[in-house]
Amino acid sequence: MRLAFLTALVPVARPDTGFEIANAAILDALREAGHEVTAFGFLRPGEVPADPDRSRIIAETEIENAVASPATRLRWIAAALRMRLPVACAKLRLVGAGRLVEVVRAEGPFDAIVLNSVMLPGAFPELLSLAPCLLVEHNIEHVSARQSAAHARNPVLRRLYRREARLLEQIERRLWRDCRFVWTLAEEDRAALGPALAARSAALPLLPVAATPETPAIAEPEPAHDVGLIGTWTWTPNFIGLDWFLREVCPHLPPDVTVAVAGRLPPGMAAAPRGVRLLGRVPAADAFLRSCRIVALTSRAGTGVQLKTVEALGLGLPAVATPLSCRGFSAMPANVTQAEDPRAFANELVARLAVIRAGDRQRLDGAAFLDRQRQALAEGLERGLAAARG
After folding, report:
1. CB 3 within 8 A of CB 387
2. Which residue, 81, 127, 188, 364, has fewest beta-carbon neighbours within 10 Å?
3. How many Cα neighbours within 13 Å face the side chain of 337?
4. Which three-class secondary structure state does DSSP give residue 41?
């Protein structure tokens, strides 16, 4: 099939956010199945598309709140109020109006359009008239916005998030009705779509960005940290989990336990507790995770599947995880422990660290997990494409 893959951010040569890693996994799987896929979307300044020949860049621009200036964020809010759109959609409309739909139409016709999240079709509803559309719901966006509102301490921000949630729910429900098929990244999110979409939806298991059968074995480095956390912490649902870990779990850890936090951090973040190093963006997620004795998976908000959980399981690493971090997985391996209470979470980390320091690294072979993910991803994608054909 000839497919258009519509995404806010075109996959880049060095993906490091969960959204980017998920995009790369889905796009790679579609191409490995033999489909001709062209990606359309925006590019951050200074980034390089992963596949320039099969990418169409609408504009180079910053669209993330964490790196935008206060003036830019105010302009986005003003546009959202004027257009009666969520801010997440209005900022895309500002940079893509008069270009995005026109470029997709000029490159067509396509057998189907894969709408990678609700933000672009929310900004450009006319996309649905160009070809049969299939939707990828990375998260149930209006639920995530409500959770962000509940966590916001600033009353103005809380009100904005509530507005986002209300408008995003309207957009999502319209897209669920009008698209031929809806993919979610967790079975729990698929259930949230309701019984009307049971036959027109599937959950897509994901893979770490470098998880290919040809990936060579990597020599295990000597651990540099006891506990490792990685994520895009500029996204509010992710930061809720990090904030919980730093404020409520860390006080229960012994002084000799070292913690490293990798990934983009929000500006103005409070100083880290004793024993915690904030590393920022790291060159390779898998190398960082391998450098830690144990991984902490701390999700407390958000929907969808946690890419850091997928990476940890694919590498066979020991972990302590909140129940929400385990969304989308029917069973967890023996080297993963679940804990919800902060003290219990800390105690599980300490107990596993004692075993690891005694010589049992608690590492498993993640190959079987990756094979199951790869096969199920291909099968889930094919179900949606069959709906577009029919």
Report:
1. no
2. 81
3. 18
4. strand
